[in-house]
């Protein structure tokens, strides 16, 4: 198989990129020192997370002159995400660290006054009338970043670049640039399904340009509504790892001697949802797999296998906290996250530990310790890699003044007719309720560097009665980072509701997909019919 060289310089999920490269018929050779760069014909510079951190790593390892020489010699070069950003002169993410300066221009942060930042999800890379390196104006690609190159018509074109554009809110930015043998994408081709694999293959095959035919004309620009499939995974009483699903977090059958509900095999179900068009797949490990050395965690194997066939982002949650291994060795949450990233995860989701960290944050007078799992993982992998999973429960009160917590006026009165409630945070899968409300929690974890909130709701989980719109609106009003609405989805109309009546950034379903009541495709087709922009699955 032909080779492509990958620069091994920075933390991050490189496994999915390797899987994607292999999927399109190439093998990966690792570049481990600047001298290796000369051997490379085709070179890929991946990168995710913080611009300053990535550039400093590349620079300290002595790679900059070798990369510049490779590009100037006209050999094929592809930059991905921070790999694109590195070609520019600099970024306001860290103004003291320069980029390679091969392209004139600077990056700045998305304006978060009217939209969530980071920009996470599927957006265009529109080259209008040409297909450049397989980029199609009709396709959507997976982006995750807070800083962007603003698009000013003609500016890069005058330097000889072809530009693929994307739009987020009222900001138009550079989705990809190409010139000669150089291609750089702000999005992640390895996470962009078939559309992304096509781009990767076109680059590796050296297919620079072709005409756009009528079938692949532009679709509307902008971020699509994200639909996520979630798989709760645990060992059943026979010791098998199964996808399960609870009713208000109770995963045992009411009949059949109370067995753990078994809805299928995790890897196969993840693949099925990918093929139905799921924009992301989330695994929640809802038991801690006690008595198992961490390196043998069954979830690692599930991720490795899934990432070979599922080319959309994978999130893994459950058990991400400082812990002690079976042989007594202390293992940090960061070490556990690293194992997950190396096995194919793109994001980790932290539940119980985030609540404890938030309690400590407030106890310390809102001072960051730098030691929490959220801070350490987002520092190392970027905040887009850290999701906080929230498991709130409704607590009714007679009036707002009856509690110190942030309340909502509810249309769904409590058992004694109460029209006011607050949402208490829980830990350990809802088994323990804490004296902290969701607004306090999400504000604290945003300050610590979380990049996204997975907002469950114990009262709604498994009820098929629709999302808790009051909860979602309360949380969206408190933070700038994206929110994934979760719990209660029972039909496609519930997804329409949550997108129409809240400003949620994504919506997640579990039981209705697992039980085969609806497919992800049916949900997306329905949203499309209602005029909401969704990504169509490409085969
Ligand atoms: O606390 O960091 O170890 O993480 C544990 C993770 O496992 C948390 O993300 C927590 O939400 C999850 N979890 C723990 N126990 C359960 C349980 O069900 N017994 N599952 C559990 C949570 C909730 C959702 C579900 C939606 C949608 N699952 O993610 O998928 O409610 O369901 P629906 O569409 O069928 O209504 P830590």
UniProtKB/TrEMBL annotation:
Enzyme Commission number(s): 3.5.1.2
Keyword list, A-Z: Amino-acid biosynthesis, Glutamine amidotransferase, Histidine biosynthesis, Hydrolase, Lyase, Multifunctional enzyme
Top-level EC class as recorded in UniProt: hydrolase
List ligand-binding residues for L-glutamine.
Answer: 81
**Which molecular function GO terms apply here?**
glutaminase activity; imidazoleglycerol-phosphate synthase activity; lyase activity
Q: Which domain of life is it from?
A: Eukaryota
State the SUPFAM superfamilies in the record.
Class I glutamine amidotransferase-like, Ribulose-phoshate binding barrel
Q: What pathway does the UniProt record associate with this protein? A: Amino-acid biosynthesis; L-histidine biosynthesis; L-histidine from 5-phospho-alpha-D-ribose 1-diphosphate: step 5/9
Residues that, per the record, bind substrate: 319, 456
Q: What does this protein do?
A: IGPS catalyzes the conversion of PRFAR and glutamine to IGP, AICAR and glutamate. The glutaminase domain produces the ammonia necessary for the cyclase domain to produce IGP and AICAR from PRFAR. The ammonia is channeled to the active site of the cyclase domain.
- According to UniProt, the name of this protein is Imidazole glycerol phosphate synthase hisHF
């Amino acid at each position: 198989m032909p080779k492509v060289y990958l620069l091994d310089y920075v933390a991050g999920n490189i496994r999915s990129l390797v899987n994607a490269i292999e999927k399109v018929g190439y093998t990966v050779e690792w570049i481990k020192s600047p001298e290796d760069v000369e051997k490379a014909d085709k070179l890929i510079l991946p990168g995710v997370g913080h611009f300053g951190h990535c550039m400093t790593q590349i620079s300290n390892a002595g790679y900059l002159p070798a990369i510049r020489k490779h590009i100037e010699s006209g050999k094929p070069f592809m930059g991905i995400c921070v790999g694109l950003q590195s070609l520019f002169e600099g970024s306001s993410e860290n103004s003291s660290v320069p980029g390679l300066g091969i392209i004139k221009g600077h990056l700045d942060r998305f304006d978060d006054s009217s939209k969530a930042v980071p920009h996470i999800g599927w957006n265009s890379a529109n080259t209008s009338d040409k297909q450049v390196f397989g980029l199609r104006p009709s396709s959507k690609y997976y982006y995750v970043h807070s800083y962007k190159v603003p698009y000013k018509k003609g500016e890069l074109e005058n330097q000889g670049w072809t530009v693929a554009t994307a739009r987020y809110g009222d900001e138009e930015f550079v989705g990809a640039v190409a010139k000669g043998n150089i291609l750089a994408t702000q999005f992640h081709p390895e996470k962009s399904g078939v559309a992304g694999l096509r781009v990767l293959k076109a680059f590796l095959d050296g297919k620079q340009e072709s005409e756009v035919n009528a079938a692949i004309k532009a679709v509307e620009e902008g971020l699509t509504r994200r639909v996520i499939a979630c798989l709760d995974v645990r060992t059943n009483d026979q010791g098998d790892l199964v996808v399960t699903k609870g009713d208000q977090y109770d995963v045992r059958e009411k009949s059949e001697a109370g067995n753990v509900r078994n809805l299928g095999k995790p890897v196969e179900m993840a693949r099925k949802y990918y093929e139905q068009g799921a924009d992301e797949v989330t695994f929640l490990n809802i038991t801690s797999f006690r008595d198992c050395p961490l390196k043998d965690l069954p979830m690692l194997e599930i991720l490795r296998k899934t990432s070979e066939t599922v080319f959309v982002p994978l999130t893994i949650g459950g058990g991400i906290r400082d812990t002690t291994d079976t042989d007594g060795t202390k293992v940090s949450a960061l070490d556990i996250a690293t194992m997950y990233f190396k096995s194919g995860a793109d994001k980790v989701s932290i539940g119980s530990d985030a609540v404890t960290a938030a309690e400590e944050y407030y106890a310390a007078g809102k001072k960051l310790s730098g030691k929490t799992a959220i801070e350490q993982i987002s520092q190392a992998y970027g905040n887009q890699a850290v999701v906080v999973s929230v498991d709130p429960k409704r607590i009714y009160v007679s009036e707002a003044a009856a509690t110190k917590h942030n309340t909502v006026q509810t249309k769904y009165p409590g058992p004694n007719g109460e029209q006011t409630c607050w949402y208490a945070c829980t830990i350990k899968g809802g088994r323990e309720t804490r004296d902290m409300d969701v607004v306090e929690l999400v504000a604290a974890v945003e300050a610590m560097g979380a990049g996204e909130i997975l907002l469950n709701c114990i009262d709604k989980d498994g009820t098929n009665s629709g999302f808790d719109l009051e909860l979602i609106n309360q949380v969206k009003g408190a933070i700038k980072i994206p929110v994934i609405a979760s719990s209660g989805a029972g039909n496609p109309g519930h997804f329409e509701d949550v997108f129409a009546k809240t400003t949620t950034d994504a919506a997640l379903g579990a039981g209705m997909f697992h039980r085969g009541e609806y497919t992800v495709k049916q949900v997306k087709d329905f949203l499309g019919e209602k005029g909401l922009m969704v990504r169509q699955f490409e085969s």
